[in-house]
Design a protein that fits this description.
heterodimer, A: Immunoglobulin-like, 51% strand, B: 229 residues, four-stranded antiparallel β-sheet, 3 helices, 12 strands
Chain lengths: 288, 229
Amino acid sequence: MKHLSPLYQLSLGLLCVLACFFYPQDTQALSITPARQTAIVDASGATIVPLFITNNTTKSIVVLPTVEAFTIEDTTQTILWNKTDPAISWVTTPVKKSQLDPGESIQVNFTVTIPSSTPPGAHYLGLFAQEFSYDGQVAVNSRVASLFFLHVAGPVYETVQLEEINTPHISFTKNTQLNIRLNNIGNMHVFPTIDIKQRSLGSKQELVFEETHIPFLAKTQKNSIYTIPLTWKDIGKNTLALDIEYGATNKHITRNISLWYLPIPFISVFIIIFISILLFFIKKTRSS
Amino acid sequence: MLYYEGLFILFMSKIFYPLICLICSIIPLQLHAAMTGGDFEIYADVFSTIEEHVVSGGDYDLYGTSGEFGTEMPSGGDYVLRAGFQAMERESLSLTLDKNAIDLGALTSDAISSDTLTCTVTTDAISGYNITISEDTDLQTGTGLEIDDVIDGEVTAGSEEYGIKTAGTAGQYNAADTAILSTTKIIAQQVGAVSSQDTGVIFRAAADAAATEAGNYSHTVTFTATINL
């Protein structure tokens, strides 16, 4: 075999190293648009909702359009997929598995057909582009969802119930927690704003908690914890006036709740004074 | 010289500042008009928009057709939604995974087996995005033997545990290992538009020499990307 010069060997090695960077790796890459959409459809009516899917990889991929419903976890406010909802069966597509060449895009039309007896209300769905996984110890699926807010046309009822409100009757810490559980029994999602007015003999303050970015979905519950900061001026009885405003019709839920703020140092001083007075009277009684 | 005098007169004139104010006020109005002009320009979650800008209290009817909306006489309920409204945002979302499968190799009690997958997300959604993970079953053999999910926040060598950890700005489990469940769990979340943002997902497993039985363990995990609500 002909001996290769050191320069040639170095060049060959460098070429091999560079080739590693350009070697097409086994990847999954999907793009969808739009990422969020809304439709209002009559009961017994139908509409078509498009989803555009693009293969961003350098190889052909097989994509499957699917539909799932979602809800929002009541405490962490995170999205939960795979919820049961009759609306899933209303959304169909003739497109099954589609092969996409590198850079190729397709438009998948989802047909939404609402049964005739469907009551008005909101349904929360995801229109997915899912790529098939390969076999392996841990096979990996990937999918990208377009959030689809489907509303069956008709009267909208915005009704939120205050299921529970509680705070410690006696608070020993300066940051008191107020727990609120709301139940959206209406048929439309809303964006509640929580206004809490705290008042004591020494001070008053207004705390406004807006949660405009995460909708409070219809037929769901929501647990929230709010921190009420208290100062030495608030020692004693405090009144918390709660005002929850929600919905397009600006509805309100109001409730008052009271708590006693007794910080540990205050209690210590109180106990010392009490014991001192007690001792004083005992001593006085004995001397008399 | 005449040019500078002209500029000076313009700046000092009474109409200059009102004119600037008028121009500034016209520009946003034009932008607003563009947002409500066509089928694909209105925010998808139109009810929050109406809630803030159209409704001023009380019951009303709401209808919409081809991207236009308005109010009508009430006819039951708090308001009425009529069919026809269809809106979407021109936002896009892209998810790239650099692997189709994770290979942890042969699990031993001496060390933690691991393999890393990188999720890369690009989106122009102002709300940002999130990635969830879920599994079809636990990591198990065909006969039902399972590798236990991590529950103490750390996969430890010599202990039968399996979980994931994340790395990157959007990672939600950068400090501790977490189990993969059949329900969705957010592992990456970011607010605001991003371009090619990477999140590493490190799969980690270890075996217990006494408790873990030999076998071919496998399962399927699903990564789901959506924009934030």
